[in-house]
Specification:
415 residues; alpha+beta; 4-stranded antiparallel β-sheet; 12 helices; 27% strand; globular
Length: 415
């Protein structure tokens, strides 16, 4: 992120905190609760946003070395993603061309060849068919015509992209627009994957995304957790086509007021969240990255899966190892919400990060979302309200509705 952008955002957040006045989207909107339960709409979303739309599946660090691979099946097509010996990223249908058997069910690993467990047909991690068991009995076959089915793929700005349709169009620059260079400035390609958590919840995938759409709830729902680290009721927000940037202040922003602007750091004063259409929430910082990929259940509009992957900079992981070796404290789940515990040169490690982003999301935010889902299913409450201070919710729902050629949300006439 450009330095001038950082300063502008930090000043905007300080001004909102000083004036005790949050961002204003200009109006209130009514959002029909049917959008969270309607099966026909859910089927359209599954087709338009997941089966036939490019998918951001991870960061470069998910394939850290030549020979690395990972598998996915979150959007209806089994994917085998590989990095070949030259470091090039590929994506294939995870299926043998003989009888369609999945080549591997392992989530990730390292190998240059994949052997079908059914009949031992063998493929290179570049997709070529290089071995057929007892070919003299099977019959001659043109191996060049029966390699793995390759899917459009791209590695750009530290992000891995796959299109589930072999004939689909994949253009990361078009998908990211002006955000591409800014996202690259966070050095995503250098981050090291540390762990993944999976939340299978009883709430629609859009309700899960709504969780990331406002900070209005921080001092109410999270008064003993997240609110001790971040301020609510202040937001710097900007849209970039179908995507947006969402920034809110940390308690550390107060320490910047006594320092010259040349010493202001975004990591000290604010948290940054990027929404990437249709289902990605990306939280970057200088030290770590948290990636949220949110998927609907194709068979049930009331269920969704959130995959949460954490990545840390090599320098932070090295510092954590050094701290443990020397007996210096590494903050854990029991101290993460205690501001006094974060002094003395202690290190904020993966366990503490998991407590902030995952436990709070699961036990507090998604619990509220599941409650809303039950109400939506009852059909009595016809609309939810998106306030003036919730512009990300306005944008997210306006964007997906526009993509499906649905009418815009109704504006509430304020007295």
């Amino acid at each position: 992120m450009k330095r001038v952008t950082q300063i502008k955002i930090l000043k905007e957040l300080m001004d909102q905190l000083d004036r005790k006045k949050n961002i204003d989207a200009g109006c209130q909107l009514k959002n029909p609760t049917a959008s969270y339960v309607n099966r026909e709409l859910a089927d359209r979303e599954w087709t338009e946003f997941f089966r036939t739309h490019p998918q951001m599946v991870g960061l470069s660090g998910d394939l850290p070395r030549p020979g690395s691979y990972l598998t996915l099946q979150d959007f209806g097509v089994p994917i085998l993603a590989t990095r070949d010996k030259k470091g090039v990223f590929h994506a294939f249908l995870n299926a043998c061309r003989h009888r369609g058997t999945r080549l591997t069910s392992e989530q990730c690993g390292e190998q240059e060849h994949f052997v079908c467990p059914f009949h031992n047909w063998t493929y290179k991690n570049t997709g070529e068919l290089v071995g057929i068991a007892r070919e003299q009995d099977f019959g001659n076959i043109d191996r060049t015509q029966f390699g793995l089915i390759e899917l459009p793929s791209a590695e750009k700005h530290g992000l891995l992209w796959v299109h589930p349709d072999p004939n689909g169009n994949l253009d990361p620059e078009l998908l990211l627009g002006e955000l591409g260079p800014e996202i690259e400035s966070w050095n995503l390609s250098q981050q090291v994957f540390t762990d993944e958590s999976i939340l299978n919840k009883n709430l629609n995938w859009k309700l899960a995304n709504d969780t990331f759409g406002e900070t209005y709830h921080f001092t109410r729902l999270h008064k003993n957790t997240v609110s001790r680290i971040f301020y609510g009721d202040a937001l710097a927000y900007e849209t970039f086509g179908r995507n947006h940037r969402f920034c809110f202040p940390t308690r550390g922003i107060d320490t910047l007021r006594t320092k010259p602007e040349t010493e202001w750091r975004m990591d000290t004063g604010a948290a940054v969240v990027y929404y990437l259409f249709p289902n990605i929430q990306l939280v970057p910082s200088e030290k770590q990255i948290t990636l949220f990929r949110i998927y609907p259940d194709p068979n049930d509009p009331s269920r969704s899966t959130t995959r949460i992957r954490q990545y840390f900079s090599p320098s932070i992981l090295e510092s954590i190892d050094e701290a443990k070796a020397s007996g210096r404290p590494v903050i854990d789940a029991s101290t993460v919400y205690d501001p006094d515990s974060r002094g003395g040169g202690s290190i904020f490690g993966p366990d503490a990060s998991r407590e902030v982003f995952i436990s709070t999301l699961d036990q507090e935010d998604y619990s509220m979302g599941e409650s809303t889902q039950r109400v939506a299913e009852a059909g009595v409450l016809k609309h939810l309200i998106f306030g003036r201070n919730e512009p990300a919710l306005h944008h997210f729902h306006a964007t997906f509705r526009d993509a499906l050629n649905l009418p815009p949300l109704e504006q509430i006439q304020e007295p």
